[in-house]
Amino acid sequence: MGKECNSGLKEFKIYGIQMNSQLADIKANCEKILFLINRDVKDDADLIVLPEVWTVGWSCSDFRSCAETFESSRAIQILSDIAKDKKSFVIGGSVIEKTKDGKFLNTTPVFDRGGNLIAKYSKNHLFSYYGDNEGEYVEAGKNPVMVNLDGVRVGLTICYDIRFPEIYRAYRKSGADLFVNCAAWGFKKPIPWECMTRSRASENQTYMVALTQSGKIKDNEFNLGHSRILDYKGETISEIKNQEEGAMSAVINLNEMYEFREKCTILKDIKDAYEVECV
Fold first, then answer.
1. Among 155, 178, 249, 214, CA closest to 18
2. Within its chain, how far is the Cα of 105 from the centroid?
3. Would you say residue 221 has pLDDT above 60?
């Protein structure tokens, strides 16, 4: 198990931006995210989090035509500027990245308070069910990525990753204080969103930002909305219950979490292996 944070940091304020993206319209979506952040995020933010594929919306067939290299991306520049202006860390949801060697990835960029790109995580599990075909347009990332933000160790995941508890347990074993899941979650699946986000937080005794898009995608398809910030016991401490666009915010207290972990040491009871006896 990873060591607990020794930075002396007690509290860390998080803002999550719920929004409805216009399909394949990077310009409009960049303008909207700037408007929402300027309207709803105060100057006390330590971390600002955006949802999955906010630049293009959940339209897999548009991913490649809207892909950008990080070096030339308008969205990446805007996220860097937001971090500098707000003096805040930014976890930039996800964008469709075109790499120098021609690969396409669903990638989360992370910026420090000075606007510098300090980490990238590419979605490890691609959703290609019920008519969706993400795996035809982007490749899966190779490994989990945990980033240290002023002593807060954050495990990064994107949408469908939530269905794989193994990645969250790996983060917890490496010392994670906070999980972030940036999503574009469909409105037909509210129970999995509710259950799995709460479970990932409580089973690992770790704070969690579960942030998804809201509003119409196309035809009769909608995003779920209902973004939430959960504490280390799985309790909701901030949420946007409906389809509204805007910010939720919460202050997380790491000392409280560490004290709880010391009193309830359930992860020490995990066995090295579980061999199933079939009878």
1. 214
2. 15
3. yes
The single residue of 5, 30, 60, 159 carrying the catalytic annotation is 159
- Point out the catalytic residue in the list 5, 32, 52, 98: 52
Residue 200 has pLDDT above 50, yes or no: yes
Across 226-235, b (16+ Cβ under 10 Å) vs e yields bbbbbbbebe
**pLDDT score for 183:** 98
Higher pLDDT, 5 or 73: 73
What pLDDT sits at residue 255?
A: 95
CB atoms within 10 A of CB 134: 20
Give yes or no: 159 in active site: yes
3-state secondary structure (DSSP) of residue 221? strand
Q: Closest by alpha carbon to 55, among 30, 19, 80? A: 30
- Mean pLDDT for the chain overall: 95
Residue 271 CB coordination number (10 Å): 6
Phi-psi group of 263: left, alpha or beta (phi > 0 → left; psi -120 to 50 → alpha; rest → beta): alpha
